[in-house]
Amino acid sequence: MRHVRVVLLALALAATPTLAAPKEARRISLDVTRASIHDVLRMLADVGRKNLVVSEDVKGTVTLTLRNVPWTEALDVVLASHGLGMEQRGNILRVAPLKTLQEEAEARVKLKQAREESAPLRTFLVPVNYARASDLVPHVKAVLSPRGSVSVDARTNTLIITDVEAPRLP
């Protein structure tokens, strides 16, 4: 028999705006028995006012009793109990198995490296005022890509930086 019981406190807290500081997460109390993990995730996302995307690989049921805990903590416990992870982009939570999320992260890193390796090099001349350009070389080298280089024109106190162009943020 499938029995789902949500404590009224959780619903009351989800429906009323909090007077506490915005940094504090909404607190919920929850008592469910053999509930679909999809239903529990949807309820937690609703309390946190987040949109939710759940992978097809997420299956199972969950039984839990939580009293007066932040909804984010409840979400973390549910995810950990099933070997799941989440990504957050803006107001959207994406839930998938940890292995899937790790593979996607590794693929993104490889793609970024491939783009950096194939991107054309550009040279930038940066005139320096109120300091010696040669004193800034170690700081500039720390932020260069592996293909980048920096040199100094002491006569004009200018840094000559050759590197791939940084991607523009939207």
- Biggest sheet layout: 3 strands, antiparallel
Can you tell me the number of structural domains? 2
Strand share of the residues?
25-35%
The best one-word shape is elongated
Identify the CATH architecture of the largest domain: 2-Layer Sandwich
- Computed over alpha carbons, the radius of gyration is 25 Å
What is the CATH topology assignment of the largest domain?
A: Ribosomal Protein S8, Chain: A, domain 1
Q: Report the structural category.
A: alpha+beta
Strand order of the largest sheet: 1-2-4
Secondary structure tally, helices: 5
Spell the H/E element sequence. EHEHEEHEEHEHEE
Distance between the termini: 51 Å
Give average pLDDT, whole number: 83
Helix content: 25-40%
CATH class of the largest domain: Alpha Beta
- Any low-confidence stretches, pLDDT <50, length ≥5? 1-22
Number of DSSP E strands = 9
Written overview of the protein:
With 170 residues, this protein is α+β, with helices and mostly antiparallel strands. It has two domains: 3-99, Ribosomal Protein S8, Chain: A, domain 1, CATH 3.30.1370; 118-164, Ribosomal Protein S8, Chain: A, domain 1, CATH 3.30.1370.120. 35% of the residues lie in helices and 34% in strands. The protein is built from five helices and nine strands, in the order βαβαββαββαβαββ. α2 (37-47) packs antiparallel against α3. The N and C termini lie far apart (51 Å). The model is unreliable at 1-22 (pLDDT under 50).
